[in-house]
C-alpha cells in the first residue's frame, strides 16, 4: 500500500461527486471520508496534508488519529484491540521493514500514537534501498554487503532512484552503481573480458544455466569506452534472461 495511492483516492473523491470513476476504490474513498469527517472531510486542504504524510513529524500526527481510523477500517494487519499484528505486517511490508520498525509498533501512550508511529515508520522505510536490499532473498550475504557499500559511494539524493532498477530502464538510474557492485563481487573478469556466469548464479541466484543468455554474451561486440554503461546493459540482459517466461 503506497501513501501516494491514498492521496490519489482522496483527490479523486474531491473531484468526483458520486465516486463514479472506474479506477476509484469506493470502499477506500468512503473510509478516508469517514476518517476526515471531523476535520472538514476530504477537502483540498486535507488532501494536501495527506500528500505530505511522509514529511510529517515522526512524533506528531498532523491530522490527529487519522492513521488509527484508516488502518483499522482498511487493513487486517492492524486493529484497535491488538494493534499491529506481526505475521500480517510482515506479509504486507516484509520482514526487514518489520524488524527495523518493530519498536515503533508499540510506541505511544494511546492507540492513535501507536498506529501513527508504527505506520509512519513502515511507510517511510518501504522504499529505503538498504531495507529493499535486505529483503532480496536471492542474494547471498556478500552480494548484499557489496550493494550496500556501493550505495554509500553515491550522494543520498541518488538513492531515491534505486527503485527504478526493477523496471530495467535503458539508462542506469544511478550511473556506475552496477559496475561498482559487479567489480566488488568479481563477477566480471577484466583480463578475459568475460562474465563469471557461475558467480552470477551462486551470489545472485541467477539461473543462467537454464536461461537463454547467449544474446547477452554477444553484446560484448558492441562495448565502448564507457565501462559503466555497457556493464549495466549486459548485466541487465543477464538478469532479464533469467526471468522465467510469462512473468
TrEMBL record:
Keyword match Zinc: no
InterPro entries named among the record's database cross-references: PBP/GOBP, PBP_GOBP_sf
Secretion signal, residue range per the UniProt entry: 1-22
Record family assignment: Belongs to the PBP/GOBP family.
PANTHER family: GEO07291P1-RELATED, ODORANT BINDING PROTEIN-RELATED
GO CC aspect terms: extracellular space
Cited Pfam families: PBP_GOBP (PF01395)
Superkingdom of source: Eukaryota
Cell location: Secreted
UniProt name for this protein: Putative odorant binding protein
Keyword RNA-binding attached: no
Keyword line: Secreted, Signal
GO BP term (any one): sensory perception of smell
Species, as recorded: Stomoxys calcitrans
Single annotated GO MF: odorant binding
